[in-house]
Every structure is written in C-alpha cells, then in structure tokens.
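User: hey, got a sec? need ABC transporter ATP-binding protein folded
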Amino acid sequence: MRLGSVLSEAMRNIGAGTARAFLMFLAVLLTGGLMGGYEALTVVALEGEAATRIRADADVRGMVGGPVDGLACDRLVEADGGPTASGALRAGPQITPAATPGRSLSSYEVTPGMLALIVAGEGRSAPAADPTGVWVPATLADDFGLSVGSRLDTDQGPSTVAGVFEWPNDGRDTRFAYAVLVPVAADGRVFEECWAKQWPPSEETDGLLYSTAVVADRTGQGGVGAAPINKGFDSHYDATGAYRTRMTRWMPLLGLLVGLLLGALSVRRRRLEYAGALHSGQSKGAQLCGIAAETALWAGLGTLASCGLLVALCMRLAASDPWTVLAAAVRTPLALASGAVLAALLAGLAIRESQLFRYFKNR
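Assistant: Yep! Here you go:
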C-alpha cells in the first residue's frame, strides 16, 4: 500500500471511532498533565524554599573577630566562583536624633559592598554609595517619618537619607533592624566584620572570608571565625541535594510505563481486526505504519495539550525561572507519548495472521 493510502485509512479509523482516539487522547492529557503538574509543583516548592532563604539572607556568611580589610572584602565578588555580594562593617558612634533627645540609635559604618549585599536580598540592584547620606531600615524610617531624600538631624550633625532598606525579624542578625548605616570608602580602612552572600552555598566562601583578615594567622583560630548571618535556618540545607533526591524524580519513568500500557492496550483491543487485515492481504509494514500514525496522533495531541497546561502552570507559579521548572515537568508527558508509540508498534509487531482463529475464538 502507498503511504497516502495508509494514512488515509488511519484517519478514517480515527474519524469513525474505531481507534477510540478521543478516549486515548483524554487518557494521555489527564495522565501527562497530572503527573507533570505534580512534578512542577514539587520543583516550585523547592524553588520557593530556596527563595525564602535567599530573601532572609540565610545564604550570607560573616567573618567575625576581625579586623578585616574593607577593600579586600568588597572585592571578594571578583573571585572566580566567589560571592555575588560582599561588604564590611564596623560599629560607629551612638547617634541621638534631634526629634528624640533621650533616645540614641546605634550606627554602623559600612562599605559600598555591604549596601549592595543588603539590597540584594530584596531583589534590588546594587546602589551607589552616597558618602553624604545615610541608610536606615524601614521600621526606623516609619517611626521617624523618613524617606529617601529626607533630612535627619542628630547630635552628630544633619544627614540626608540616601536609602531605606528592609530588615525583617526573620532570624537574621538584628543589629541593622534599628540602626543608621553610614556609607564609607573601603580603601585603606580596617573593619570589624566581612559578610559574603553566595547562592548556592559554597565551601570556598569561608576561605575567601578568612583571606580578608588583617592578621598573620588566617586559619580561623584565635577568635576569628565564619558563621551564618541568619541562624534561624538549617545550616546544612542543600538545595541541589534536595532537588536531586526529590520523590518526583522518577516521574518520567512512571510516565513511560503508563505510556507503554496505553499503547499496548490500544493495539491489543483491536488485534482481531489487525490479524484479519493481514489475512486480507495487508502487508505488515503498512499495518505498522497505520498503527504508528494513529497512536502518534492521539498521543501527540494529548501530550501537546498537557504541555500547554504545564506552561500555564509554570508561568503562573514559578517564582524566578519558569522555563527550568517547565523543562523538568514536560519530561513526563513526553516520556508517556514515546512509550505509547513504542508499545503500540511492539504490540502490532507481535500480531500474526496465523493467530486469527485464536483471536476470533477468544473475542
């Protein structure tokens, strides 16, 4: 038979309902969509957990017990595989606002890199450090009615608010929660601490932090040590390990098995028809071509529809990288469709004209 005749017959089988194509399409759509959706939701949950840690600065480590070189600390971001933000700080004088003479505020002198680290957790770009202005947390700004550009009169003289940042009480170091940050140049200055933000966490971060210490012994002894800035989260958290060991990592294999089952059933229920066609003179190659065309149509359309639903789901729920989540989710419906076509061909290959009487007898 010519290819056009084979495909025409396959389309007639689908149109007449012989192939039960619509039922198989629904099976592929629902199975692939549900299984792929479960995988997507699992990955989105892992992504959300990681995003929560990043927003809470759980990926920030600080070297305390200094002193540290402020310029070296700010330049840690230039190291290969180094942190995405790093900066130094040291305690400043107590500041008494003119509006509250009996209430003093702590102040900290910070490098430009520290300001970049602070706003990095908020998803903002690194600010330019304004040496003529100060940075205040949102809670302090609310209490004193401050905003960017506001004037803050203190016993140390007037200052301009150059920036307002968020510093919630989520387990992180509380010193910045109600303090004034004064940007200073990092060059040629010694600071008390160096912080570095890196995701995913790396064992090399502590080594880089120790390299900023202005001491002869940089091995982390003598009171110098690195610790997480936010101790409210598990320090042994492994985002990569959690993704690799997730329960749904086997979902594509399960989808393949379901596809094999659907493909085999679609042919098995019509084996009498196929054996009769062989007895009537249809070649085995033409028959397999027709089986492949019918199966590819309902499996392909079902997979396409389920992938469309997964695209919408990932775009709606994924926080940062929906395409990566989608790449993990669509593996299951794709494996299902591949298994259906493969099983249908193998089942069709096993049908023989000599089995016609047995199929008729057992129908």
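Quick note: The chain is about 50% helix and 15% strand. Let me know if you need anything else on ABC transporter ATP-binding protein.
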